[in-house]
Hints:
Elements: E1 5-9, E2 18-21, E3 33-38, E4 41-51, E5 66-67, H1 76-88, H2 93-99, H3 103-106, E6 116-121, H4 123-127, H5 137-147, E7 151-152, H6 153-158, H7 163-171, E8 175-180, H8 202-212, E9 218-224, H9 230-243, E10 247-251, H10 259-268, E11 273-276, H11 282-293, E12 299-302, E13 314-319, H12 337-348, E14 351-356, H13 361-368, E15 373-377, E16 388-393, E17 399-400, E18 403-404, H14 405-416, E19 420-424, E20 433-436, E21 453-455, E22 460-462, E23 469-471, E24 484-487, H15 491-501, E25 507-510, H16 520-529, E26 535-538, E27 551-556, H17 560-563, H18 570-584, E28 586-587, E29 590-591, E30 593-598, H19 604-612, H20 614-627, E31 635-643, H21 646-661, E32 671-683, E33 686-695, H22 698-714, E34 722-727
Parallel strand pairs: 9-14, 9-15, 10-12, 10-13, 11-12, 13-14, 16-30, 19-26, 19-27, 25-26, 27-30
Antiparallel strand pairs: 1-2, 1-4, 3-4, 3-5, 6-7, 6-8, 17-18, 20-24, 21-22, 22-23, 28-29, 31-33, 31-34, 32-33
One zinc ion binds near residues 445, 447, 466 and 468.
Amino acid sequence: MTPNxxxxxxxxxxxxQFDYLVKPxxxxxxxxxxxxxxxxxxxxxxxxxxxxxxxxxxxxxxPIYSVLDHSPLWEPSLFKLLNWASQYYQYPLGDTxxxxxxxxxxxxxxxxxxxxxxxxxTDAGHNQPLTALKRAPRQVQALTMLRQGALSHxxxxxxxxxxATLKTLTEKGWIEALEQAPAMRHWQSQFxxxxxxxxxxxxxxxxxxxxxxxxxxxxxxxxxxxxSGKTEVYLNLLEPVLAAGKQALILVPEIxxxxxxxxxxxxxxxxxxxxxxxxxNDTERLSAWLAGRDNQAGIIIGTRSALFTPFANLGxxxxxxxxxxSYKQQDSLRxxxxxxxxMRASQANIPIVLGSATPALETLHNAKSGKYHHLILSRxxxxxxxxxxxxxxxxxxxxxxxxxxxxxxxxxxxxxAGNQVMLFLNRRGFAPAVICHDCxxxxxxxxxxxxxxxxxxxxxxxxxxxxxxxxxxxxxxxxGSTQLNAVGVGTxxxxxxxxxxxxxxRTVRIDRDSTRRKGSLEHYLEAIRNNEYQIxxxxxxxxxxxxxxxxxxxxxxxxxxxxxxxxxxxxxxLAQLFIQVAGRAGRASKPGEVVxxxxxxxxxxxxxxxxxxxxxxxxxxxxxxxxxxxxxFTYLALLRAEANQSELVEQFLQQVRGIFxxxxxxxxxTMVMGPNPAPLSRxxxRYRWQLLLQAPSRRAxxxxxxxxxPAIALLPLAKKIRxxxxxxxxxx
Length: 732
Ligand code: ADP
Ligand code: ZN
Ligand code: ZN
């Protein structure tokens, strides 16, 4: 009997699938889309199963409205991965699959390249003597061109045949339009290495040989500082893959997708390359997605979500800067693209390379325990020297907009030598708080448990947690005094101060406020490289992936906030930032210097980092994590809940706690912590609490969550409260 029922995953926040009747003649595919009635609406869903049994009487089932795909959208291993991700990240399957599709496919558009508008001659057009048209040279040109065969609309416009000319010729009945699928590119047959390659050093050669030794799944950590030649290794790894006609996927952090990176791949290979990032519009996104699926791209470079691109014949995955926090999605499907990439490579049975100067502790742990192969590039490929570094003890020192006198003196030296200086401060705005000098009142956001940040440029107080903003007040909200002072230093204030301290040099600030306009970041980066600015101020944004050879002094102004943070990952992030900027300061002829301002120069972590390097720091941090039962030695999930009434949220999480504790899969090694107020206990008027769950393995964590989730959903409070599960959260 032919299956006449399709079980469909729909983009609704319910952990179940829905049965629909397949009408005679309809040919749905497992993994393909169908449009179905759902309540009063029509939804696009994915067929998960074709069967002839349903738990419902057949006469209650509605028929599929239309079948959108006759073949699966994803290759089998990727489809399997998406199913796995839905379970592992505790996110409904239909929503997970919708998340993995370009917007146009979610909306039901055809999953094939858009056709091209072409023009060809009619019989009358062929027979038209051109000499009769002497006074219409454009028409003659168009007809002459078309005598060689049909041409695309774009091709004709490029030769300056206008729309008007085409219209006239159509009206005369000499040409006609037709829609044609774009020609398929057979890049494999033309594959070539199109530039001279440098001679590899021994470590590079060894790394490449190790990966090439086994074409099947293997995970390789490629550890090497900036400039040690990692990208050159990637290029060499891609070569045999592309030569064999297979495709490559390269993941980069959100801000790492620079034209320089892309150009290195374009220069090296004669292969179509597509990029996928947040700047694409829906058409471009679909087109890049199809290029992967239809083997029209040899290389796809993209940020996090590029992981969900289907490939006709994927041969290798590279994850550059694998430690980068932007690989973790912070809402809806809270996946980690690096971790899923490893799963994908394993499902597809191909090698994956994770590159970093500062591997995540999780990754290092996997390398040390032998789960991943550890490849090391210990030297800079060029002749550049490592930067010098040191701490500046600022205890008891007067700080001018966060700058100590010795740091200002150092800056002067570097600037006078004609070099650039880069300062890091991870706080936007002018000042992180406004205080009343007479009574101590602090301007607080009414909707959040947070102070307003003062933005002097716009004369506003802004809450960085909800979008609230208001004009700066002139009087204290408590005593009416006009003595309101800004406290603390943000990048805006630092910029102002530097302009006064160093009037002869130009200062530029790179943060989310100053780079809001599209293209402005690229503009600033270019100007910095052209030495139009000498003093660069930035938040984390400035640290990532940009190379400024004339920067010889880098200073991290506020190291202490990371040393004494509640988030156990803060020190790891500080260490990564430090190594990253240290790796970028200076070049062969201009050795760089990195300076940390701190009140705690004796701090063990700083000492390890400064005098023994990242690996030493990481070993120390890993043994601390082991003792404290923290990842990667245990696995965490965070259950967040929020509502307008604090008591309700706490009560809800107490009940949830009970569910986890009495779960049949709970053990001595599973632990529930909380409910505790979230780090920002009130945001946008809603009270936020969280429950932290700890388990000894991924498997145990997943089982525990999967068993508890349906029970949580049944709690009466679950309907009044917004709650979500973050598996392996990055921010606690
Ligand atoms: P990373 O990706 O680790 O920052 P790159 O691969 O970009 O390092 O290498 C840094 C610089 O050194 C680049 O300009 C690159 O062309 C060059 N380079 C890399 N490997 C070699 C090599 N074996 N011989 C000479 N130059 C090299
Ligand atoms: Zn707020
Ligand atoms: Zn006051």
